[in-house]
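batch_manifest entry 22 of 60
target: Monoacylglycerol lipase ABHD2
source organism: Cyclopterus lumpus
requested by: lab member K.T.
priority: normal
notes from requester: please return tokens only, no post-processing; we will run our own comparison against the previous entry in this batch. if the run fails, retry once and flag.
--- input ---
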Amino acid sequence: MTALEDGDMGSFGPELPAMFDGVKLAAVATVLYVIVRCLNLKSTTKPPEIVHQDTPLSRYLFKSCSMLTKEYIPPLLWGKSGHLQTALYGKMGRVNTPTLSGTRKFLPMPDGATATFDLFEALGDHSAGDDVTMVICPGIGNHSEKNYIRTFVDHSQRRGYRCAVLNHLGALPNVELTSPRMFTYGCTWEYAAMVEHIKRAFPQTLLVAVGFSLGGNIVCKFLGESPSNQDRVLCCVTVCQGYSALRVQETFFQWDQCRRLYNFALADRMKKLILSHRSTLLGLAGSNIGEVDLSRLYAATSLMQIDDSIMRKFHGYSSLKEYYEKESCMNYIHKVTVPMFLINSSDDPLIHQSLLEIPRTLAEKMPNVMFALTQHGGHLGFFEGAMLFPQPLTWMDKVVVGYADAVCHWEKNRPACRRSSHRDVNSCPKKRTPGDERRA
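--- output ---
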């Protein structure tokens, strides 16, 4: 029996190397397949999908802003993966980030808080010849020192825009809180104070409101809260916001696109930010935060748990549902009458596909709204590049400024009624004659 087995083994001996080679080839093929699928290499590039109504303004925008119809080409090897775009933005922000020179402004708030924003003057004249200020609201826990903000500001400055960037309350590591609260999902107080300061300091300036991610919710909510908030605002642009706070948080518990992991990572970052202000939140008079709340914070593994134990209590909301409903722009965005440009990416792992029906429906029903949906870009990534290395400027940087430029020229060529805070996007642009009165 032993001799037979030895003989059988000897007869199979020459075939074993070939079998092992086959296993190796199968393993290599499997790895390549996984890489192709994960990197989404088979996906084709194309221009963004634009949802809009046919108006004189939309036709003008398509003619004046080539980025709306131009193909967005991410870096070939990794740019078609929304996860890598998001991770690269989160880890690095941008490449070759410029150094900015600006002035930090401190604004006392009625409740004792101190809002801060950074002001950066334009580095040249605007092509429309007007004084225009970008009033920018960054993403969750972000501020003017973040790389993606610095890159965007530098690009805007060079195109003739003054830039004011809100620093979310509690986000700057070297600025202490002066009241027992931090920024929240939809608190517009600090953004409103910055806008009002800009209007007073520069009576001739026009405004372009820009919001990134959570900042997009704040900007849209602010504009919709009162018609007067839209005075002197030329347009509003938001990038990668979720529109409905409650629905965003519900989708963050789902595992598809690894959103549950992103939820955990964002919660961990928020937890560290809140705990860095632990003594202030506990020590100042009038605080709604106690030791029990902080104990719940330590155990939190999701943003929803942090919102329930800490964030909603800054403004006295009785429940998490009330907090999300009152802080979301969903109840205000339909009241915005200035031109709005809403940008999202199909492969954004933080924003569920169902949430994209909100801006799509708005663009289909409201003539002042344009919705752009890219196939790639991740969450605030939108890197461009031929093969491996991304370019310093992203598609996002260029399209936001390009849209703002087009609206500035559209407003420049409109008749005198354009000064109304309730602009009609259906009124045709008209060349201004030398006798037309100047903008107040």
